Amino acid sequence: MKTLKDLVLLGNPLLYKVSSPIKKSELPLVTKWVADLDNVMKEIRMKYNFGRAIAAPQLGIMRRLIYMNIEKPIVFINPEFTYMSDEKMEIWDDCMSFPNLLVKVKRHKKVTIKYLDENWETQKWELKNDLSELLQHEYDHLDGILCTMRAIDLKSFKWR
């Protein structure tokens, strides 16, 4: 079981790599990966008092997998955005891989995401506002993009 000490931190080259799609034959591994993601997210919540979702690359699992748990757990396998609104919003973004730093970014106000669930069934979800921002942040991790790379300007950083 992975723990907080396994979290990939800012500066680690893994955070800048593009993750590979999950193959159907790897579905049995997804259950273990999700358990690891859930465990680390719970530890982050205990230590830092935040954390609604986590991407697999943050634990060195270089696959296109996002785990979100707000009211109930949701697993996003090989997600892709099918719509991103022109309208954007500015927010202070945080990240488990650098938990004490906040970064001001612009994100799309509304998105639609298509993904496979843990039963390998296609799902589609329209998200807006904070959930839209959250999924864009996690999706960026799958492409090796950090919110530090999306900072609005050089003054868009602050300590928590």
Furnish the topology, listing elements before pairings.
Blueprint (H helix, E strand, L loop, with lengths): L26 H22 L4 E3 L9 E5 L3 E12 L3 E7 L6 E8 L1 E7 L5 E7 H14 L14 E3 L1
Antiparallel strand pairs: 1-2, 2-3, 3-6, 4-5, 5-8, 6-7
Describe what you observe in this structure.
It is a single chain. The chain is an alpha+beta fold. It has one domain: Peptide Deformylase. The protein is 22% helix and 32% strand. The chain has two helices and eight strands; from the N terminus they run αβββββββαβ. It has a five-stranded antiparallel sheet with strand order 1-2-3-6-7. Strands 4-5-8 form a three-stranded antiparallel sheet. The longest helix has 22 residues. The mean pLDDT is 97.
Write a concise keyword list for the protein shown above:
single chain, alpha+beta, Peptide Deformylase, 3-stranded antiparallel beta sheet, 32% strand
Sheet with the most strands?
5 strands, antiparallel
Tell me the CATH architecture. Alpha-Beta Complex
Read across the widest sheet, the strand sequence of neighbours is 1-2-3-6-7
**For this structure, what is the CATH class?**
Alpha Beta
Can you tell me the overall shape? globular
Question: Beta-strand level of the residues, as a percent range?
Answer: 25-35%
The assigned structural class equals alpha+beta
Rounded to an integer in angstroms, the radius of gyration calculated over CA atoms is: 15 Å
Q: How many distinct helices?
A: 2
Strand segment tally: 8
In the predicted model, the low-confidence regions spanning at least 5 consecutive residues are: none
Share of helical residues: 10-25%
Mean pLDDT: 97
**How many domains, in number, for the residues?**
1
Amino- and carboxy-terminal Cα gap: 29 Å
